[in-house]
What we know:
The complex is a heterodimer of chains A (about 270) and B (about 280).
Chain A: H1 10-37, H2 54-61, H3 63-96, H4 102-114, H5 117-131, H6 137-161, H7 165-173, H8 178-189, H9 191-206, H10 210-215, H11 223-233, H12 237-264
Helix pairs in contact in A: 1-12, 2-12, 3-6, 3-9, 3-11, 4-6, 6-9, 7-8, 9-12
Chain B: H1 20-40, H2 50-57, H3 59-92, H4 95-110, H5 113-124, H6 129-136, H7 150-174, H8 178-186, H9 191-219, H10 223-228, H11 236-245, H12 250-277
Helix pairs in contact in B: 1-12, 2-12, 3-4, 3-7, 3-9, 5-7, 7-9, 8-9, 9-12, 11-12
Amino acid sequence: xxxxxxxxxxxxxxxxxxTAAVAAFLLLPVVFIVLLSFGSSRWLAFPxxxxxxxxxxxxxxxxxxxxxxxxxxRIAAMAAILAVVIGLFASFALVRGEFRxxxxxxxxxLTPMVLPVVVFAIAIYAFFLRIGLAGTTIGFVIAHTILxxxxxxxxxxxxxxxxDKSIEDAAIVCGASPLQARLKxxxxxxxxxxxxxxxxxxxxxxxxxxxxxxMASPTLQTLPVKIWGSLRAxxxxxxxxxxxxxxxxxxxxxxxxxxxxxxxxx
Amino acid sequence: xxxxxRQSFAGLPAGSGGAVPALLLVGLFFIVxxxxxxxxxxxxxxxxLQNYAALFGSxxxxxxxxxxxxxxxxxxxxTILVAxxxxxxxxxxxxxIGSIVFGIIILSMWTNLLTRTYAWMxxxxxxxxxxxxxxxxxxxxxxxxxxxxxxxxxxxxxxxMLPFMILPLVGTLRAIDPMTLRAAALCxxxxxxxxxxxxxxxxxxxxxxxxxxxxxxxxGYFVTPALLGxxxxxxxxxxxxxTVQSLLNWGLGSAAAFVLLVVTMALYAIQLxxxxxxxxxxxx
Lengths: 266, 284
């Protein structure tokens, strides 16, 4: 009985062992980098000869790291808001519209997720060089909004499809205007989708490296660009400290997501 | 079917108005730049196909193409082999244990890409933990070259691609009716036969769709190959970036980008077919 966990017999031992090994493999780099960030060895020796907070001190004492993190947060927040708002409107058209080429439109709006980022990166970089947006915050936000848009559209359309439109119609029959019905009935019902969209869109921009490498200027660089630069230079433990903070952020986002989902889906 | 007709904005088809901002954004800042880039491949520095001739005529670039396909194929194969047993267990495990494994998968997937790649750079280097551990155990006497070569890229890429293979496969495996396997057992099939004749064929659509996705993503990957790979086995995305950024050869870079775009889109279309086949109407 290959699909019956209780009756797998010896095969279960082997498969569970393998799964545990893969889980350890997936966890290894994350745990390792956090441990290393507290190690005192400049050369990243492991196990570390001693424990220290000096890499974190260096990180916070360096204004270029702080600047890069703030720039990333600012750009990701703007890109996420834009992607969610534009994606919300587009999702209504994609789910409820009755027009030819709807599938084509959906395919088109999701293409930025499929096209290799490097192709988009050099295309938008060349374009922005010509119109003077290369190396600007606006340029960054536009490029990241395009990349974040599919991550906003997918959860919102999924939520909208699961929502029974007759409830919205009922509100209109009871005297609500179509706008009121959407704002007060539909939007609250699909809030989990909108919330997921916001998180994914934010992360799509926050973690984005390739476009950022091209778009960055000496005065405007995001956190991934700063890390990329440090990695190409040397494997400084300061990067481990920055990386550990990013792991912490990921954990926070996972916990918040889990809690909010539980609360919202009550 | 619906009780209410939507208002139509200025001549637009019913219900399409909401898509206008997205369409403007994607049209102006995605379609236009990409098309402009592709045009550049046949106009820069002068009109003609010389960039494509240079691309396919030079042994260096042909090697980059072949190496890109080789890496993507190896990564895909390893990812499938590792992901299948895990997805299988996740599909049937008691949820209490399964959710821990799911949590680990999501954590690794959501962790910053550069962070994960950096960790592997440190782990795999000559004096890294893995080499030290293997030497300490007496398995090897010289440090293994695990970074700046195919091994490094494969380990780093498989690590990144695993969630994209495991998660959809769990869905495929959960959708298989356990009764089919019970029937096989009743008819006298042993575990191996049941696996080969029932479980594997039934999960093949999921394996093919996931594998194709991993292959397509690997083809155009930039960050991990650039940091974990060597100069002798450069991949296409890195070559494109370098041609444009360091050599400022936009014509050649655009031509290579066009090749990558065509291959990716063609494979993506096949993937959509595979996934769409299981969903009548290919709905949203």
